[in-house]
Specification:
Number of helices: 7
Strand content: 15-25%
Helix content: 40-55%
Oligomer: single chain
Order of helices and strands: HEEEEEEEEEEHHHHHH
Strand order of the largest sheet: 5-2-10-9
Largest sheet: 4 strands, mixed
Radius of gyration: 23 Å
Shape: globular
Number of strands: 10
Length: 260
């Protein structure tokens, strides 16, 4: 009987080490005036690590999901149970906020994880990362472009499935509904960008300080020449946006119908 009891105890320990629960979190989003943001989306997943002697490798315990904030600026991310390889082969996963997107502020550049960058005037976190001040990026096309790039990448990550894989509408109906809303928001954000900056000339980017200090004169000259060629090829913001997102918008339109 004793070996059986030992085997049962070992199995119980392995089972306990393979199961975990991640608590949820409520985020509060406000604008620079301190007013609650009445429309927002947060993309999140749960991440853990696989420790090894060289370096830890992360793993994703749950596919990226979406939640929508309420009119008071609160975004409630639910907790979740996880089943994974036993600890310490795989650590218990923790919440990972991938992106915060506020359509009316054209801002989709923020995260709320410990150690995430906080930039006043763009996306700033307070102590504990439970409250964020989200700035309007409409007057900053280079950051607005970043929002569209981030949002496009997120939509692809959430919706795309391999051949034979069940659709998002089947596996996560709530996220599917929010993804469909995001596609509409992306289209409107893109059109708003073109209406404001489509015919505006792109500014000439500055060479990053670190690159300037570490590059030779020939390398700096080649960098300047590549920038000249790029600005000749695509002198306006509208030309860049059309190249980046023209084909993608057609794919998103098809996905929008599939997610109904």
């Amino acid at each position: 009987m004793r070996p059986k009891l030992m085997a049962f105890g070992l199995a119980a320990l392995l089972g306990a080490a393979s199961l975990s629960f991640s608590c949820g979190r409520t985020l509060t989003l406000v604008d620079e005036a301190g007013a609650p943001i009445d429309s927002s989306y947060v993309a999140y997943s749960y991440m853990g690590t696989r420790p090894n002697p060289a370096h830890s490798v992360s793993y994703q315990a749950k596919r990226t999901a979406l939640v929508r904030g309420d009119r008071m600026g609160h975004v409630v991310i639910p907790g979740a149970f996880h089943s994974h390889l036993p600890f310490p082969i795989e650590t218990h996963p923790a919440l990972w906020v991938e992106l915060v997107y506020v359509p009316r502020l054209h801002n989709g550049v923020g995260q709320t994880n410990r150690g995430s960058p906080s930039t006043p005037g763009v996306f700033a976190l307070d102590v504990g990362s439970r409250r964020a001040i989200v700035s309007d990026l409409a007057a900053r096309p280079e950051l607005w472009e970043g929002t569209l790039l981030n949002l496009s990448s997120l939509i692809n990550k959430v919706v795309w499935r391999t051949s034979g894989e069940a659709s998002l509408r089947v596996t996560d109906p709530e996220t599917a509904a929010f993804a469909r809303e995001l596609i509409g928001d992306f289209r409107r954000d893109y059109e708003a960008f073109l209406a404001r900056y489509g015919n505006v000339a792109r500014p000439r980017p500055e060479i990053p300080t670190a690159q300037r200090q570490s590059s030779s004169a020939d390398e700096l000259q080649r960098w300047e020449q590549s920038i000249d060629a790029d600005l000749v090829r695509e002198p306006t913001w509208g030309m860049v946006m059309t190249r980046l997102f023209g084909d993608e918008l057609r794919v998103f339109a098809r996905w929008e119908d599939e997610l109904k």
